[in-house]
Design a protein that fits this description.
20% strand, homodimer, 46% helix, DNA-binding, 11 strands, alpha+beta, 3 domains, Arc Repressor Mutant, subunit A, four-stranded antiparallel beta sheet, Jelly Rolls, globular, 269 residues
Chain lengths: 269, 269
DNA sequence: GCCTTCAATTGACTTGTATCAATTCACTGC
DNA sequence: GCAGTGAATTGATACAAGTCAATTGAAGGC
């Protein structure tokens, strides 16, 4: 593995604050692998032998039932996945598939569990990571049970805008059919939802979406910090856990005068 | 706090295998409290100062948006809740309300986080608990995105049957309007879903549901171990994490010849 | 005893979403 | 260049679920 890849892994909140020894234990049997687009990395129901760390590319997590499939999450670098199954040494509940050419670090599950037993700081980091993922799913469930498809799309666009710190032009990172499944609708309905949002100044041109009336869009979307996490991703905020902490601090500060960057909250500077 | 209550807390997987010292640290500032039915224990958005341990009664976790409310989970003793928020010292994403008279142990969040730093076994236990809750939510999302309301109800009844080890007569533990919200439908639609299930031998009499044709019900419900956890609750299986491990072992063993009790899987007896 | 209250049910209707089919569009390979 | 593939869109229609309103039913208070 290249040194710069190792640095990126060490940069993950999961591994950031652990002892050098622990890091060596955890990554001893790890190997870096490249996969073409459309590769099934893991099938739901399979035993999970590795913790996956996505270093480059995009991975989709999805679930299947009765010949139907639904996208549960889409991951972008750098992020880990199926940590929960690794911790419990349980079978996967979701399948994982590469959406593009990917570079993935695979760390044996045994090594992770051993490292947790050795280093309370690492075990703590795992807990924080899992807590972040858990809260992400709570948000997902609320989003799906409380909103209709147009509202979900509207909030998705606003979250994207906040995450990428883009102005009034956001770029969709995925194919529309994948996005539709993620948002819990059919591709046909996503198209119709986009047309419905024209009324509030949303225009789509391929993957480029222009928001010419954010005020109206927000009036329709009614974004809520307890459902939508508007933490600016990238920079200091890479893991869900960081985004959760950012969100809480933002809310406590009133959502306007709060910490402007993640570092303002994380460190006392 | 009564000694028998302390024993019940110590019996939780979260606290079962930790050092006596750690347990003392964790529970030092804890206090037992009783609440009448309908009490709001926690409002979404509030900072979370305590880990709650439900010793008696029922608690509902719900979320709100735009004047609508949805039930996200219903807890029965003995179980902990809002562990994720405690670990991250973040604000609650869900509100908690007692459905009946409850007895709840409240453990300061600081004490939990301190204990995690001191004792890797405790940190590990927290990770396992969170991993179990996370996987429970993954199941919930799949359930909601892949099934319609009748299918969700059918599977709910089958899961209840497996959990309580009841024969062909299951008892609903909650009011129907609460159940409807948990299953993601209106009370009116729950009524209709029950009538739809008459065709497969389901009859309702208040809280008592008789399943006179389980084969037909299963044919309709198509239960799936990757969505529905049929672990028999009570006995050895109290936390989500245990149920997850049970489920994996059950599947690996083929779902028929597998471990008959949780202990068969957990210990090598 | 009766009255109140609220959960549960039932029917009529509206809205939301999925499905099916046809067409357009963009990219890829030859 | 052009055909072929699959994504995206659009329209017509069917089905699922929510809403509104009225009724029934059961538990609790006086």
């Amino acid at each position: 593995m290249r040194a710069c890849d190792m640095d990126r892994v060490k940069g993950l909140p999961l591994f950031a604050e652990i002892a050098a020894d622990t890091f060596r234990v955890a990554t001893a049997g790890a190997h870096l692998q490249r996969f073409p687009a459309g590769t099934m990395l893991l099938l739901e129901g399979d035993p999970v032998d590795f913790l996956y760390v996505l270093l480059d590319g995009q991975v989709e997590l999805h679930g299947t039932w009765n010949d139907h499939e639904t996208v549960l999450a889409i991951l972008r670098p750098v992020s880990t996945f199926i940590l929960a199954a690794v911790v419990l040494d349980a079978d996967a509940l979701m399948s994982a598939r590469t959406l593009e050419r990917c570079e993935i670090l695979m760390i044996p599950g045994d090594a992770i569990r051993t490292a947790m037993r050795l280093d309370p700081r690492f075990a703590m980091a795992v807990s924080r990571d899992l807590a972040g993922c858990y809260r992400g799913l709570v948000r997902t469930v609320k989003n799906h049970k409380l909103r209709n498809s147009v509202e979900r799309l509207a909030n998705y666009l606003l979250t994207l805008r906040a995450a990428d710190n883009s102005g009034n032009v956001v770029r969709l990172h995925h194919e529309k059919r994948v996005l539709a499944s993620l948002l819990g609708m059919t591709p046909e309905n996503l198209s119709r939802a986009f047309s419905a949002l024209q009324a509030v100044g949303v225009n789509v041109q391929g993957a480029v979406v222009t928001l010419s009336n954010v005020v109206a869009l927000e009036a329709l979307a009614k974004p809520d910090p307890l459902i939508d996490n508007h933490a600016p991703r990238g920079g200091d905020i890479v893991a869900e856990a960081d985004a959760e902490v950012w969100s809480s601090e933002w809310n406590r500060a009133g959502g306007v005068t709060g910490p402007r960057t993640a570092s303002a909250g994380k460190r006392n500077d």
